[in-house]
Amino acid sequence: MQTLKGLGPKRREALLQAGITTLEDLLNHLPKGYLFAQEPTPIARVTVGEACVEGIVQAAPTLSYFGGRSMVRARVMDASDSISLTWFNQPWMAKQLLKGQRITLYGLAQRRQNALNLLNPQIIHDKGIIPQYAPLPGLPGKVFSSFVLQALDKVAISTKESLPDSFLREHRLISRYQAWQSSHQPRNMEDLAQARRRLGFENLLLYQLAIRQAGPQGQAGPKLVNAKATAEDFWTKLPFAPTGAQRNTLSQIAQDMGTGQALRRLVQGDVGSGKTAVAFGAAVCAISNGYQCALMAPTELLARQHHENAQKMLSPFGITCGLLTGSMKAAQRREALEGIADGSWQLVIGTHALISKDVRYHRLGLAITDEQHRFGVRQRQTLADRADHLVPHILALSATPIPRSLALVLYGDLQVSIMDELPPGRTPVKTRIVPQGKRDDLYQYIRTKALEGEQSYLVCPLIEDDEEADQEKQSAVALFHQLSKGPLKGIGMALTYGSQTEAEKEQALGEFYAGTAKVLVSTTVIEVGMDVPNATTMVIEDAENFGLAQLHQLRGRVGRGQKESWCFLLGEANERLSTLAKTNDGFEIAQKDLELRGPGEFLGTRQHGRMLNDFGVNDMKLIEETSACLMDLENNPVNKATYNLLSSLARDRYSHKLDQVGLH
User: Fold this and answer.
1) Do 228 and 255 touch, CB atoms closer than 8 A?
2) CA distance to 250, 283, 315, 326, 366, per residue, from 280 (Å)
3) 424 pLDDT band (50/70/90 cuts)?
4) Cβ pair 607, 376 in contact under 8 A
């Protein structure tokens, strides 16, 4: 790296912050996308969509500011016509253009006030397929691109192939160097496709191997006596009959825990399928054998909900349950730590606080993580590692259905159980897409329901960028004040959002649980953990801003009682929202979402999604191909040498990242 021209201390630090310390790291930092700069189109023939134009700058650009944001305006003309240019939050563009300069631009043509405008266009110096790199703080894109080209020259002779030649031939893969070259300097679409397939195949394969190696596969675990009988007895002491899926899943778990091998299982169940009862049944099996059980939830709200449910459901078994969260006062925490350490707390429920270094468990035999996709492989394992000399059973729960083919990649260290049956008596939630113009009618419906004693949720749009998180809060606050002074004046209302203190959240949610608040305005903090049977209406503002899986989760907050429940999606109808309106099957919805967006987009901002996008992978066929390849490597003795080589590569490349994998 030190031989790169133009690499000073500040730029070296910028690369270091991005995890780039070697030339190989630099070349593995793939473009986020490509510009396909074809021959310029005469301006008079430009239509809405991506466009490439060439012309003369008519006048010096103007730079203006509004609300802390900048806007640069300019105009170019050719022999046929002229077109306006607009750059938001790129003030430096004002210095890049000179009156009379001939430039080629590539950008998105939009129609504004009956005229076309190029939005945030890029100045193009070359024709062809142009790599676009994600911006790194303190490192301009041109500089990064020059480093990549230098790295390609430097490794041309010295680079070592990471995969055996026979493996490359068998799977029709080009060499590693060819893949780097075609990714960063593509000559045509065919070269680019081969490069992305080669690098995606290698990265996916090693990634899956690293996940498989993360847990103590095949290790001895606590051998539970009479676990299956205990599981059957568990259902007889509950005030409801289990579904077939609940009974079968718990029986499977109990059988695994009785073998003497450490359980490693993921239970995927749709919203309301009864996963929590299955988890408590597994806890009873472990506790009846003298072991302690820990259940970790991603939020304090969900942890408290589990604690309340456990106290009710497990009272017939005489099991002591305790709650440990990060917001506890010092005296409460000391008392909790003592209860965990001496074993007087048989079932410990909490948040990430459960994996704090000062927590000492007493014969921890079962570690459960709820909302599994919000925890990393390493975090899940850290909870298990707190068992000192024991290798506890690990049970992971997820109410976010993920198609089995993708689950193989994400949870390769776990066996997967599917719970696809809902308890009898649950009324299916009806879903309707409501155009923005009908908003007032919807608010009147909520008012009517409130006066009839029923409750409603109003969820504000998701804003994913950290710097815009405050806007999400503001939108919830603004809606709360608008409704409380207008359409819902006189109706009891509560407000909750992510940056509130725990005390503020508790007060708002407490009012909603108690029924004094008939309407809860919130951000997505209520996605999991809310169980209010009297809530019959869910309104999701600007629903097109949410992923399908998240919309399905939010919809699952209603329909928990006997009354008819509705979910209203405020927004314009599209294929995604129409899918949600047609079915309540979370697995069907997940499969459709995967088909529409591909695996990287499907997983969104979770670490898995970012990693798949970094790999350049958004193709389920490639994921399925690498999964089949891995199965063959593991099961065919002929492949042992190749398997060992790839396992070593996987550890070197990904083991340090497994504390992040799976996180939102």
Assistant:
1) yes
2) 10, 5, 12, 23, 11
3) confident
4) yes
DSSP conformational letter for 277: H
How far is it, in rounded angstroms, from Cα 148 to Cα 154? 10
In the prediction, which pLDDT does 613 show?
56
Other CB atoms closer than 10 Å to residue 297's CB: what's the count? Answer: 27
Give one word for 19, left, alpha or beta, with left for phi > 0 and alpha for psi -120 to 50: left
Residue 78: other Cβ atoms inside 10 A: 17
Query: Which CATH architecture fits 430-583?
Result: 3-Layer(aba) Sandwich (3.40)
Q: Which amino acid is at 81?
A: D
- d(C-alpha 577, C-alpha 567), whole Å: 12
pLDDT in tens, 174-233: 999 999 999 998 888 899 989 989 998 988 888 888 877 765 556 788 999 999 999 999
Choose among 540, 522, 560: nearest CA to 429: 560
Domain residue spans in the chain? Answer: 39-126, 160-214+620-664, 227-419, 430-583
Res 404: pLDDT: 67
CA distance 220 to 458: 48
- 207 C-beta neighbours (distance < 10 Å), count: 25
Total-model pTM: 0.65
Give the architecture-level CATH label for domain 39-126: Beta Barrel (2.40)
SS3 86: strand
The token pair at 459 is 């969820």
Across the chain, mean pLDDT equals: 85
